[in-house]
Structure formats: structure tokens, C-alpha cells
Amino acid sequence: MKILIVDDDRINSTILNRLLTRDGHPVVTAFNGRDGVALFKSEQPDLVLMDIRMPLMDGYEAARQIKESSPNRFVPIIFLTAVTDDEGLAQCIKAGGDDFLTKPFNRVILQAKISAMERIRMLHSVLQDQKEQLERHRDGVRHELEVGQHLFSNIVRTGNLLDAPCLNHWTSPMSLFNGDLLVASYTPAGGLHIMLGDFTGHGLSAAVGALPLAELFYGLTAQGFSIGDLAEQINEKLARVMPTRMFCAACLIEVDYRQKSIMVWNGGLPDLLIADGQGRLVRTIPSNHLPLGIAPMTREDRKVEIIEMQDDYRVFLHSDGLTEATNIQGEMYGNERLLAHFGGHTPPDQLFEVILEDLKAFREDAEQTDDVSLLEVVCARAGEEPPGGSAPRSRKDIPPAHWEMAFAFSAATLKAVDPLPTIINALMNLQAPEGHRERIYTILAELFSNALDHGLLQLDTRTKKTSEGFLEYYAQREIRLAALKEGHINVRLAHTPLADGGELRVRVEDSGSGFDPVQIQSHLEGNLDHGGRGIALVRTLCTELVYHGNANIAEATYRWTSQ
Amino acid sequence: MSITVTREGNNAVISIRGQFNFSLHRQFRDAYEKFPPTTPMVVDLAGVQYLDSSALGMLLLLHEHCGGEKSNITVRGCNPKVAQILQVANFKKLMKFL
């Protein structure tokens, strides 16, 4: 251990020098405080023995300057003093001294003090190393979080329709990253898909799962898959990439303004609440599935709840962070407080704000322990476009060409999969008329579901006119589809180029017995009656729509021009 | 907070007291790992006031250890709050509840 002796008394200095050198310590000496400070800086000793009364600069001042010049390194200073009064010793400590040694020197005490200081110095240097390591680590983590957050916001925000006029949402991140994920996107048929996901844990580990989830959500929604399909595919992906103990409680909602329906798949999130035009709770949809990412899904697990939408409905969804938010007394906000707002005394258009205000007042300054998300869907505005319009799809223009595609679907296929996304994607990859995807999807979807629901399953649209009938319709549809043994649907698409675009002919034929041609009109009206979707809509989109046979063959012609 | 392991016939019973959260991660794993996957497991939550999502994650690890679909796990002694959390997560599809 390199030792600096600062003492103007040459005899003392020499004695100390000899003692220390004999013990193997390299020694440097200065004879006043000023030289001591200079020598300290140039020699960087590990310990300083400091006299007090010296010319030019006294020991107190020299000690102060030495301590100041090395704030991060622990260099013990031992004062050499003849004084033994409390006052004098206190001043040594105040000046930055770590110990003192009274004259005349006792060799054993000197050695003991030096080794004690050495131990403290070692301890300090280990601490310092660890501190630096921690700081480096912290900087690294912060850097990675920033990169992660950048990726996260790009993938989650791009194309997210959270500014859709019908949506109100609020999320409070408890750390740099939010474990709650909210995404929304339009379906090709004009419906809106919304998903709230709550990952186990918070921060980066939670957000990692958000990336595949958001990509699948947007991709599958754009391709026309249903929320049941989305749940299944996201579940499979998350189960594959996430560790066992991690999962994502999630609720998927589809609001279809034209069809006047709300579909819900809830796996692990708190009850979804639906309020009517008076702000009263009319329906709760509890979680009836496992959260995503735990186990493979069965047919039963794909099941969605279907609700007939009224225009004045408001749908509320929250993560458990809301009801489990605690106040300073450790009390939880709880479900009762939340439900109390839905008694019909709060104007429905204020519910969202009132709930948030109430939560804030309840929590006061209590520390937030979990992510909190609240989402409201205002059904009356579900048909409105977001301010910026739908996100444009960038695709290269394919020159109009002659082509034809034919599909044949057996009963077995129809029971197992929804072939629509496949058809529309094949079509779009072949021709991709910019900006026409939604219309073409709607035409195909309508003709196809007509063929399936009315042709093969013999369902009567008129049932849908009443609320009970509406639910009965979907219940019947499920039963009949499961029982379907025979029948087929053939779809043929033929495209002809025109001067400034093309003409697409869609022919959908089912093996059902068809309709009495006289009743077709009333059948169409019935379809129109509920929500405006249906054949009448197809008619407005097409240049021509004709029925052949017993109305079991529909042929639509759609002309498009490049924009 | 503590975890005790006892036997009731063929069953291994893991009893948890206090907050069931990530701080019990190692103890909980040590509690089940010494048993072969085929051992019927009972998780006694009578001493637990509250579960968080990391507790659900630990139950999933137990479920995986016991062979996933083939597992035989019973959860008992849940207070209403705990039962509600397990119900919202639909863990009844993975394990039995008493």
C-alpha cells in the first residue's frame, strides 16, 4: 500500500518512513500541506498520514483538498496529532480525516490502524466496482427498453384505429412499458375489431408478447377472419413463443354496425359491460375461456357470444387493474363501485369520464401497482370512419387481365373452416384493385353467407326481426351447421379487363332447394330490414345481380376503375 | 409467507400461507419438483388472501410439471376473492376446484 506522509517535523517523518518501509510499504513524503496535496495528485497514494500544524497549508486544509480531489476513490487520511482533547479530534474528522494517531507513535498501533484502513479501502473498492457495474447494467437495460418501446409503438400503433369515432380509451402505464395492449382495426366488411389484452407481469417481458399478438390481430383482421379465428391463432402463437408461466388475458370484440351485432370472445378479462341509452346495465359477458397462450384451443374454446346491437348501446371493457386499484388504506376499488355507475342515474355519454374521475378520487395519491385500462365502444358511432379515413393499403398495381377461378366447398369443409378469407386473398393477390377490396369482400361475403345460411342451412332471415329471434337465428345456425352432412357451395370468379379497369363476375351456387321466386323479394326485404346489410346492399354495390334456377344461383357483376 | 408440503394418502398437498406471489416462486417450484409428474397434487390456498397473475403463472408451471392435460391437480380452500380470480381466468378447465 503506497503511503504519503505529510509532516514538517523531519524526525517524525523519518521514523514513520522507516517503520513503514520495513513493513514493505512504498512511501512518499512531503513537508507541508501544499506539497502534500500536489504529491497526492501526482503519486496517487492509497493512504495519507497527515500532520496538523505545518507551514504554507495546515493539515485540515490539505485533508479537505485531498478528499475533494478524489470523490470516487476512498483514500483514508490518518491525522498525526499531539492533541488528545475532544475538540481537536472532532476537527480532524470534520476536515475529512478517517482516524488519528497520537504522538509519540506506537508501532503496533500504527500497523493495526493501517491494516484496518486497508480493509475499509478494499471494501470500498469492491463496493465502487459493484456500483459501476450496476450503473452500466442499468444503462444497458434502459437502452434496451428504449429500443423495445420503439419497436412496440411502431408495431402496435401502425394501423391502429384507436382514433375511430366510436372508441374512448384510457390506459395508464405503470412502467415504461404497458402490460395492457389495446388494438383496433376495421374488417374488410366494414366491421370493427377491438382487442384488449392484459399480459402477465409488466414492462418488457409483457410487451414482448404484444408484438406477435398485434401483428396477427392486424393481419388476420384485414384478411377477413372472425374474432374466433383470431383468438385461436393468437393463442397458438403465444403458447408457442411465451414461457409457461406467462399468458395474456384478453377480450376480442367485433362490432358490426350494418349487421347490428356485437360479438365477444372473453378469455380471462373482467366482465364486459353493456349499457343502454339510459346508462343502465343491460348485459354482462363474463370470461368463459382460458386466457391466451396457455393451452391449445378446442372448438368449444372458439365460441363467441353474439349480442344484438341497439344503436344506443355502449360497451365497456376494463382490465383487472381498474377494479383492483387500491387506495392508501389498502382497500380495492372493486366491482361494486364500478357497477354502481350503471344504475341509470349517470348520463350514458358521461359514464366513461365519471368512472375515471371516481377511480382517481378513490385512489388519491396511492401508488399504482398494476396497469389500468378502460375502453368504451359507442355503438351509435360504430359506422363512422376515423378522421384520417381507413389506413391505405399499399400494393402494386396489377394490370387488369383475363382470369377465372373456381372453388368447390363440400359440407365437411364448410363445417371446418370459413373459406371466405382464402377466396378474397386469392383474388386480391391476382388482381388487387386498389380501394375495392372492402366492396368485393362484402359482395362475396353476402352471396356466400346467403348460400350457406339460407340455401344449405335453410335459415329464415325473418327470424332476425325480433331480439329473441336474433339470438335464436345464430343458435340455430350453429346447430344446423354442426349437423350438416350433405351439400356444397361452388364459387366462380371471372375477371375481364376493361378500358380503365375491369369487370368481376361472381357466381355463387349452392345445392340447397332455393327459394320460391315469388318470395325472393320479401326475403330480400327481410334481410334489409335488419341492419341494411344483405342482398339490397350487394345490389347497390354491383352493376348487376341476377338469380338463376330456384334462386340457388346468384350472379353478381362488379365493375371497377383504377383510382 | 410459507409453503409446507404434506402427504394425504397418494396425494401431495402443497399448503401456502400469506401472499401467493412471485416471491414464492422458488419455494413453490421446490415443493412440487421433488414429486414425479404422476403424483396427484393438491394445492391448499386456505392461508392465502390474494392471488396475483404471477401466482396463476406458477399454477401453470405446476400444471406443466404434472403433464399438462394429463395432470391431476386439485385446488382447495379458496376464499371468495381468490376463487373469483381463478374463475375469471377459467382455470377450472385445467384443474379441479373444491
Question: What does this protein structure show overall?
Answer:
The complex is a heterodimer of chains A (563) and B (98). By secondary structure, chain A is of the alpha+beta class. Chain A folds into 3 domains: 3-127, Response regulator (Rossmann fold, 3-Layer(aba) Sandwich); 158-381, Phosphatase 2c, domain 1 (4-Layer Sandwich); 403-561, 2-Layer Sandwich (Heat Shock Protein 90). Helix content of chain A is 40%, strand content 23%. Chain A is built from 16 helices and 20 strands. Chain A has a 5-stranded parallel sheet, sandwiched between helices. A 5-stranded antiparallel sheet of chain A has the order 6-15-14-11-12. In chain A, a hairpin with a 4-residue loop joins strand 19 and strand 20. In chain A, helix 2 (33-43) runs parallel beside helix 3. Chain B is an alpha/beta fold and 98 residues long. Chain B has one domain: Transcription Regulator spoIIAA (2-Layer Sandwich), CATH 3.30.750.24. Chain B starts with a strand and ends with a strand. The model of chain B has no long low-confidence stretch (mean pLDDT 91).
Give me the count of strands of chain A. 20
| Quaternary structure type | heterodimer
CATH class division of the largest domain in chain A: Alpha Beta
Helix content of chain B: 25-40%
Strand order of the largest sheet of chain A: 2-1-3-4-5
Helix/strand/pairing class of chain B, anyone? alpha/beta
Domain count of chain A: 3
CATH topology of chain B: Transcription Regulator spoIIAA
Helix-strand pattern of chain B: EEHEHEHE
Query: Which CATH architecture of chain B?
Result: 2-Layer Sandwich
End-to-end separation of chain B in angstroms reads 23 Å
Number of helices of chain A: 16
Radius of gyration of CA atoms of chain B, rounded to a whole number: 12 Å
Mean pLDDT of chain B: 91
Q: Let me know the average pLDDT of chain A.
A: 84
Measured by DSSP, the beta-strand proportion of chain B falls in 25-35%
